[in-house]
Design a protein that fits this description.
195 residues, alpha/beta, Rossmann fold, five-stranded parallel sheet, 11 helices, 5 strands, 11% strand
């Protein structure tokens, strides 16, 4: 059995945005959906790496050539859209911790979401030996430094961890940093691979 497992958050333990949540952001922005999504995601890497909220939304508006009528509503809808979990994965986190597996979390996440997660999900986040958030280390996956920092926080070499992420680029980044890594598909896959 792998004794150190590192999980991504979104698309693995946490749910990604629903179609309804995406549409709510588009409606609040008041711009065409495709243009909004391009600006939203195009500006996101700096936000994930620690850019403040006001600067992020200003960058999105600038890319779109608009001014948003209600930035506070966009921020609130955005935070809400990234706050749901997969209960089966939460149960797996508890199960692995109870079995003595050391756990790390490596997430591309914005600073505003960290206290939301810690406030609402502290019970299972507390089972992790290291929580590594891109916004707090100034670098985001798939940059190899993100994985190296995570491994250092766990007190291991990167090759001592098995990493799960739902994004192929992040899996490749983990492998480039020396971690064993798998593209996440399901809790059953994790159980089968770790033995």
């Amino acid at each position: 059995m792998s004794r150190v497992i590192v999980f991504d958050l979104y698309g693995v333990i946490a749910r990604t945005q629903t179609d309804e949540a995406k549409q709510r952001l588009v409606d609040l922005a008041g711009v065409p959906g495709e243009a909004f999504r391009e600006a939203y995601w195009g500006c996101r890497p700096a936000y994930d790496a620690g850019q403040d909220t006001k600067a992020y939304w200003a960058a999105v508006a600038g890319r779109l050539g608009v001014e948003f009528a209600d930035v506070a509503a966009l921020v609130a809808a955005d935070l809400e859209s990234w706050s749901l979990v997969d209960p089966e994965m939460v149960a797996l986190v508890h199960e692995l911790a109870d079995r003595g597996v050391r756990l790390g979390l490596l997430s591309n996440i914005i600073e505003d979401l960290v206290p939301v997660w810690e406030r609402h999900h502290g019970d299972w986040l507390g089972r992790f030996d290291a929580l590594t958030y891109s916004c707090r280390i100034g670098v985001a996956k798939p940059d190899p430094r993100a994985y190296e920092i995570c491994a250092a926080r766990l007190g291991i070499a990167p090759g001592d961890a098995l990493f799960f992420d739902d994004n192929e680029a992040n899996v490749a980044g983990a492998r480039a940093a020396g971690m064993r890594a798998e593209l996440f598909t399901s809790p059953g896959q994790v159980r089968a691979l770790i033995g």
